Amino acid sequence: MSPPDIKKLDALPALPRAVQEIFHVVNDKDAPLSAVAEALGRDPATVARIVAAANAAFFVGHHTVYTVDDAAVRLGLNRVRVLATSTLLASRFRPQDCPAFDQGRFWLRAMSVAMCASKLANYVPLETPSSAAYLAGLLHHCGVLALAYAYPRECERPLMAYEVDRDSRRLDDRLSEVLGFGHHAAGAHVLRNWGVPEAAAAIAESYSQDDYDGDYARLQALIRTCIAWYREGYGDMPDSPLLRTLPDTKIANIGASCRREDDQLRSFALQLASAA
Fold this sequence. Notes:
Number of helices: 15
Order of helices and strands: HHHHHHHHHHHHHHH
Domain HDOD: 12-210
Radius of gyration: 18 Å
CATH class of the largest domain: Mainly Alpha
Number of strands: 0
Protein name: HD-like signal output (HDOD) protein
Pfam families: HDOD
CATH superfamily of the largest domain: Hypothetical protein af1432
Number of domains: 2
Low-confidence stretches: none
CATH architecture of the largest domain: Orthogonal Bundle
Oligomer: single chain
Structural class: mainly alpha
Mean pLDDT: 89
InterPro entries: HDOD, RNase_Y/CdgJ
């Protein structure tokens, strides 16, 4: 395979400076809720979606919330971060010129893997703080979004084939044949340009590799497990050496929690897609 076409990679989307500043505060594990709420206040559309999510039908019976602070109490700060980051990216990168790109499915997968990773990360040792797992999960597939946005015509046929086989490695190969680089290289390039922590960029670059042994091997194994588990509907846990010490009851409880989360995130993913 030829090396990535760096000139083309440099044409991939950048985050506007104002959005980049919000993005970094929202995803700073040390940022207090007050700082996150203040940053999100600069983007009213994102605040509106988070508050709407907190008031959604699955919280029926609860009192109405009106602020990010109240939404974080109801949803949890990790959920707010996942929803906020997804909204920021979905509103800036809208690949509507690439009909083969299923935006609802993309965002459901991204958010579901992120939330699954955030739950499992509490029980396994990683190279990073456990809080990094949700960001790596959320952004692992972002190269596909970037390419569908930047090269909609070129991506149409590879994405149509992907809808049939759902094989990320084959999608990477097909995109490389057309563009000179695939979604793994694109995702890593975009995330590094955005100043995202290196762990997330490394996962975007490597998550399809069976034999990855880089600096974030345990985090990569966790994200791969979450992707596989999501695809199976959170039934039996895929075999993973990283999780073999977890009791079956713990795995069953986390799986049940992920299924509930998936149902809740599905409506939000459809909202993101419909707004594009």
